[in-house]
Amino acid sequence: MKTFLKSLVTVLMLALPVAAQAGTVTVKGSDTMVILGQRWAEEFMKKSSATKVQVTGGGSGTGLAALQNGTTDIAMSSREMKEAEGEKLRTRYNTTGTEIAVAKDGVTFYVNEGNPVTSLTMEQLRDIYLGDITNWKQVGGPDAAIVVYSRENSSGTYVFVKDNVLNGEDFASSAQTLPGTAAVVNAVAKEKHGIGYGGAAYAKGIKELKVKKGNEEIAPTADNIKSGKYPLSRNLFFYLRNKPAGEVKAFIDFALSPEGQAVVTKVGYFPVK
Amino acid sequence: MQQGLTETMAVPRLSAAARRRQLREKVIAGFITLMAFTGIAALLLIIIFVAKEALALFLEPEARHEAGLSKMFLPQVARQGRPATFTWQPVSNIPKVSMIPLFIGTLKTTAVSMLVAVPVGVFGALYAAEFAPRRLRELLKPVIELLAGIPSVVLGFFALMVMATFLQETLGLNTRLNAVVAGLGLALAIVPVIFTVAEDSLTAVPRSYREASLALGATPWETAWKVVLPAAAPGILAACVLGFGRAIGETMIILMASGNAAIVSADFGDSVRSLSATIAAEMGEVVVGSPHYSILFFIGVQLFVFTFILNMLASTWTKKVIKRLTGSAS
Fold first, then answer.
1. Which has the least CB within 10 A, B135, B182, B231, B286?
2. Dmax over Cα atoms in chain A, in whole Å?
3. Residue B269 carries which DSSP code?
4. How many percent of chain B have pLDDT more than 70?
5. How far is A123 from B5, CA to CA, in rounded Å?
6. How deeply is B65 buried, as exposed, middle or buried, from its count of CB atoms within 10 A (0-12, 13-18, 19+)?
7. Of B91, B96, B271, the CB nearest to A176
8. What pLDDT digit, counting tens, does each position of A141-153 carry?
9. Residue A136 in contact with residue A265, Cβ under 8 Å?
10. Is the minimum CB–CB distance between B262 and chain A shorter than 8 Å?
């Protein structure tokens, strides 16, 4: 009976909302940042074994919603918080929230390896995603219809592209939406006339497009992204309800330390400092 | 008087053991009743919950403004200077929540899957029940039923990675992910459903029917086609309805293999977005209580109503068929 009670208690403990547990930091949000968050958590837990850091994905919107609902300590987001989301925090918790940039990333457009197009201007990218340009011929490629891939609207990258490439306008409804950068990369690798976007990717079968500005073609390299010369670089954020304190602060301090920023480079993104 | 009578007819004296047994039976009966009502209560609670969340759409002025019925079913202007269209774009400065592309998407994938799965399932069942040698039949049935056990995410993955490229190359489709790929992936999931139920109802046709038919000089093929198949019609219809319900509600395969673009077109080579996949793709991100959240629940209500109406129609039709076959009023 005693063992039964014990196991029952354990099960109940597991079922409790994780935020309620002492010694646990929950991190939730952007799929772009999941791997980064997990590496940070691993390294951090190696150093201070008393604290548990739990990292889950689901998309930036999911993380920020969880922050508003009080089910996570830290929300990872690959975009800035929207005004409506900040409003919710204000009405529910009477705070404006805390925004901390923890890494940098460049959003890259991919095409199939066999595609002769190597660079596009921001206007061309915009027109392709709005559905105004529908054939590769119009941007110096082969005579073939463009197959446009996008991300689900819970993705921070989706919102980033919408705000920074489309100037807030809607994606063409013919744009196919796929879950996750990996799915987009895989789709473009298999679709000869496809175009997609996501973080800097290392994959076979795709080519990263340079962005043309005047006569200059800017590649999404580390230097261009860090200096902000590449037009589609963005910050990756941690969002909190209040000022960081206690274990949460320790974890964030670690992420921003030289050691933590070295993890950023290892994962494939770029340090903020 | 009455009371007195019943008292005189008092229960015969029971032994202690018999009384205990009686008590135990009562407890068991009560337990079973309780279980049955738990199921019904759960169903009721689900309906109430989903309806309540969707109802906000009609009660709150903010939600009514953003996602009223007219916005759902009439064309909207998506971009200034463009003609009004049916657009599903709920995450936007001006949310556009037309259900039409989602209906079209759902119908397209369901149509493709039913076109493939009904003949394959029904004829497969007819073959297994009437023509297959016993050994083959004993192999065929479990193998197809095993197909029903494959998780839909695996079928979706197969459709995405293998079928998509193959179909694009053989059929010359514009895009890899489209209604045909998703529908065929879906067919894999519903063939076993149709097969199993159809096979059961075919084998349940009394032997005397077949013997009578054969005795009258009909060939085995004529017997199967003109006697056994019509006699099993209600069961086969039930199988198809079951398959249809699964096709409408199936989410994972479509989410993975359809491309999820909400396009209004008649071309089956275009990408589609279905009702169920929309819920799955967008539920994670919505702010609880927002109009977008309510509209996803409203989609759930629609799916529920769809299958409910379908089941009603099917059951009335089945009754009619049974009446015609048996010739009686019952």
1. B135
2. 78
3. T
4. 93
5. 97
6. exposed
7. B271
8. 899 999 999 988 7
9. no
10. yes
Q: Distance of CA B21 to CAs B18, B24, B226, B275, Å?
A: 5, 5, 53, 53
For chain B, give the mean pLDDT.
Answer: 86
Q: Which of B75, B71, B109 lies closest to B90 in space, CA to CA? A: B71
Give dist(CA A43, CA B248) in Å, integer: 46
What is the Cα–Cα distance from B106 to B118, expressed in whole angstroms?
A: 17
Coil/strand/helix, residue B47: helix
Long-range contacts of residues B219-223, Cβ cutoff 8 Å, at least 24 apart: B220/B130, B220/B131, B223/B130
3-state secondary structure A138-154: HHCCCCCECEEEEECCC
Which of B78, B93, B261 faces A174 most closely, judged by CB atoms? B261
Backbone Cα Rg of chain A: 21
Which residues of A are less than 8 Å from B262 in CB distance?
173
| Residue B262 Cα, gap to closest chain A Cα (Å) | 6
Distance of CA A5 to the CA centre of its chain: 43
Torsion of CA B99, B107, B247, B194, to 10 degrees: 160
Q: Are residues A130 and A90 in contact, defined by beta-carbon separation less than 8 angstroms?
A: no
Band of pLDDT at residue A128, cut at 50, 70 and 90 = very high
CA-wise closest residue to A62 among B288, B290, B96: B288
Beta-bridge mates of residue A147? A194
**Chain B partners within 8 Å of A178 (Cβ):** 259-260
Q: Confirm if A104 and A234 have CB atoms less than 8 A apart.
A: yes
B18-74: per-residue pLDDT in tens? 889 999 999 999 999 999 999 999 989 998 998 888 888 888 887 777 777 777 787
| ipTM summary value | 0.74
- How, if at all, do strands A216-218 and A147-151 pair? unpaired
Distance CA B112, CA B185 (A): 10
The answer to whether B329 contacts chain A (CB < 8 Å) is no
pTM for this entry: 0.76
Residues 6+ apart with CB under 8 A from B267: B174
Q: How far is A170 from chain B (nearest CA, A)?
A: 7
Judge residue A71's burial from the number of C-beta atoms within 10 Å of its C-beta, 0-12 exposed, 13-18 middle, 19 or more buried.
middle
B76 touches chain A (CB under 8 A): no
Read off the pLDDT of each residue in B254-262 and give the average, rounded to a whole number: 89
Sheet containing A216-218: give its strands across.
A119-121, A210-213, A216-218
B241 touches chain A (CB under 8 A): no
- The answer for A 194-223 residues in CB contact with B (under 8 A) is none
Cβ A147–B262 below 8 Å, yes or no?
no
Structure tokens, B137: 């039949």
Query: Which whole number is the average pLDDT over A100-116?
Result: 90
Dist CA A205 CA A194 (whole Å): 12
DSSP H helical ranges for chain A: 2-15, 34-47, 60-69, 83-93, 122-130, 156-164, 181-190, 222-227, 246-256, 258-267
Q: Report whether A174 contacts B89 (CB < 8 A).
A: no
Distance from CA of A157 to the nearest CA of B (A): 13
- Which residues of B are less than 8 Å from A68 in CB distance? 287
Q: How many CB atoms lie within 10 A of CB A90?
A: 12
Does the beta carbon of B177 lie under 8 angstroms from any beta carbon of chain A?
Answer: yes
